[in-house]
Each structure stands twice: as C-alpha cells, then as structure tokens.
Amino acid sequence: MRNREHLDAVIKAYDVRGVVGKDIDEDFVRDTAAAYAAILRSEGESTLAIGHDMRPSSPALAQAFAEGATSQGIDVILLGLTSTDELYYASGDLGCAGAMFTASHNPARYNGIKLCRAGARPVGQETGLSEIKDMLVNGVPEYSGKPGTISEKNVLDGYAAFLNSLVDLSDIRPLVVAADAANGMGGLTAPAVFAGLPVDLRPLYFELDGTFPNHEANPLDPKNLVDLQKFVVEQGADIGLGFDGDADRCFVVDEKGHPVSPSAICALVAERYLDKFPGATIIHNLITSKSVPELIEEKGGTPVRTRVGHSFIKAEMAKHKAAFGGEHSAHYYFQEFWNADSGMLAALHVLAALGKYEGTLSEMMAQYMRYEDSGEINSTVKDQKATVQAVLDGMADKIESVDHLDGVTVELKGTDAWFNVRASNTEPLLRLNVEAKTKEEVQQIVDEVLSIIRA
C-alpha cells in the first residue's frame, strides 16, 4: 500500500518520473511493474520488453522492474542500453508491451519510466497510469501462477536497419554531419544508424555518461545547443544534430551554427509525407508555428491540431490514421513507426532532403520559416488558473479570439500574431509561447504578457 499524495507527485500525465532514492527506488519500481503486469495479464498480454538509458541508476531499476513483472507471470525481454525510440521499435517489431527507464532531459539525480503497450501504443493517465496508481494505493492483486521468464535481446541493429528502410539516403550527396549526443543514448544509436551511409559523422559528447559532465541533455534550452553550434562551424559541417538524453528528440542546427525551428522541421517532414501520401492527415500541436498547418493545406493535406504531449499526439495519430505528427519540442511521430516518436527518423528525413538539395541547409529551410517566435518561456506562479485569467483580463482589448484546447491560445486583433499560456503538468509553472511576423512584434507581446504573469 502506498501513499496517494506521493504517487500523484511521481506518476505524471504520461510517464513516471522523480528523484532516485527520494521519489523512486527499486521497491517502488518493483511494485509499479507488478501493477502494470497485472493489467497486461488481464488484457491477455504475456510479454514485456524493458530498455534503459545510461543513467547510473537505470540498470538496477530496470532489473527491479523485471522482477516485479515476472512475479505476475509476464515474460520479460531485457534490451539493455537503448534509446526510447529503440524501445518503441522493439515494442512494435516484437509485438509486446514496453518499459523504458529514463528521465529524458532531466538531471542525473532523476529517473523514470515510459510505458507502452504492444505496438508502441502509449500509456498515459487515461490509458493505464491511473489504474496503476489505484493498485499501488489499494494493493496489487495476488498472483499464484507460474512466474514469468527473463531473457535478453539486442535490437540495435534491427532498429538501425528498420529506420534506414523508411528513408533512402543511398544516393544523396556526401554530407558532413556534426552530432551532439550530450553523453546520452544518441552516442550509441547514431553510429549504428549512420553506418554505411554517405555521411561523415563528426561526434561530440558521444561517451555514454548519465552524470552529463558536459551539459544538460536538454536541447530545448538554448544554452545546451551552444557547444553544437560552435562545433558545426569548426567542423565545416553541413548540418548539426542535437539529441536529448534518451535520444527520442532531435534538434537541428544549420551550417552557420543557427538553430532551426522544430516547427520548420515539422513543415519539411510533413511536405515529404504529403509527397509520398497525397492528401494525408498531419498532426501538429497547438504550439507549432502557423506555417505548419498553412503548408499542409497548401500541399493538399489535412492538418489536425492537438494538445501538447506525446500521449495526446499518438492518440490523434491513431484516430485520424495520420501519416506524420510534430511538436514544437522536437518530438516527431510517424505512422510507419507505430505512431511513435523518433528524433533519429526525423533526422534521416532532413538529411535525405538536404542531400538532394544543391544549396545549404539555411537556404533550404528558409521557405519553411515564415514567422518569428519566442520559444517557450517559463514563469513560476502561485496560482496558475488565476494568473491565466489575469492575462486574459489584461489583454482583453487586443484579443480577437481565445481557444481553450490546452491552456489558452489567444489570436490578437489585426495581426497574424498569437500567444499560448498553459500550465505545466508537473511544476508550478506557466509556459508562454508567442509567434508573430517580426522579432520586434514577438518581443513586444512577450514583454506585455510577462508583465502580467510576473506582476
């Protein structure tokens, strides 16, 4: 029996995450595994694949999870060191549920679990996490049957071959690719995926080290891209790729060392899928640039707007049979990849496009960058709901329309500008995103909204 208040803090909207030794330990993980295995068994599932990242705590936590799952009669396949999208590949290819031990971009003291059902189908609050939480509070049902077995399997070569079967780079011009793995799992997966391609891979921080000695494994924060930006220019690279800790996200830097907006990458990959599947549906979250749905419609596709978060995107991917989905945070989702996200697969698409383009990456991407944006700006607040209302009240005379799909998305009168303010699911934060035609307009809106949020 466990405390619900503790569980509410650790079991988030679409994963389990916390500080090792304080929020998460081997006993907690073992119990969580038993609860998940009981659910799987009740649904007729028999097998669970477990992968883990390079954090010092990950191997022992993965082993404890295996023990908990087998205690409920579920057979376990230990994958060892994997990226999160490699775990999704295993779940899809092997047709079994999955558990990935990682805290993604969080500091070394954190760890967590991303769960999926067979075929990489997501597990979130409404699709299993709440049920797991209830079992941990009330007790996991006893199981008196035969324990499950534990076996080991390395899927890295299969994962690399599968990604390369989806994007043909065999006849592109040679490219110099600088990549920053941030001492995360990209240091293992990138060499395997790029082996044999006409790509000169220049590695930065490829040594697996879950203490992150060089910088945080969070490329969404601009300070963590600085080393890659410098490295791209030093190496004379055609492109830079920046991965997060579990390598399911990929950020792109152009040959000048300038970051490329993930929204522009969304638009590029969407265009490639619309060329491949004319009229296809493409998912985008509500923080991506307006240029994404604009381009989708121009190319004859159907854009579908959704909330932020992988479990929401994956659900919409399945519901609409979408070919591709993208988020502002550099999560990219592919129908061909069991609707799961893979930064590496997105990177291959960018390389394929660049390898057939005669100019530079910055020239190629200019057509997809129609607006300026603020990036995500976080503010700590005491009362999220009241602060959002204060923003709406303070901006009332400038508001054209308000959308409540995820926080508030505000269209401003007489302009193409918009902003979104939404509450963090895990912290007392409000997240602000602004887009407009010019940097000056973006900054003006940012200043005005933040003056209310931080008053």
UniProtKB/TrEMBL annotation:
Keywords: Isomerase, Magnesium, Metal-binding, Phosphoprotein
Limits of the Alpha-D-phosphohexomutase C-terminal domain: 376-450
Cofactor(s) needed: Mg(2+)
Organism: Corynebacterium flavescens
InterPro entries: A-D-PHexomutase_a/b/a-I, A-D-PHexomutase_a/b/a-I/II/III, A-D-PHexomutase_a/b/a-II, A-D-PHexomutase_a/b/a-III, A-D-PHexomutase_C, A-D-PHexomutase_C_sf, Alpha-D-phosphohexomutase_SF
Descriptive protein name: Phosphomannomutase
Limits of the Alpha-D-phosphohexomutase alpha/beta/alpha domain: 11-133, 159-257, 263-369
Single GO BP term: carbohydrate metabolic process
Family classification: Belongs to the phosphohexose mutase family.
CDD domains: PMM_PGM
Keyword Metal-binding set for record: yes
Molecular function GO labels: intramolecular phosphotransferase activity; metal ion binding
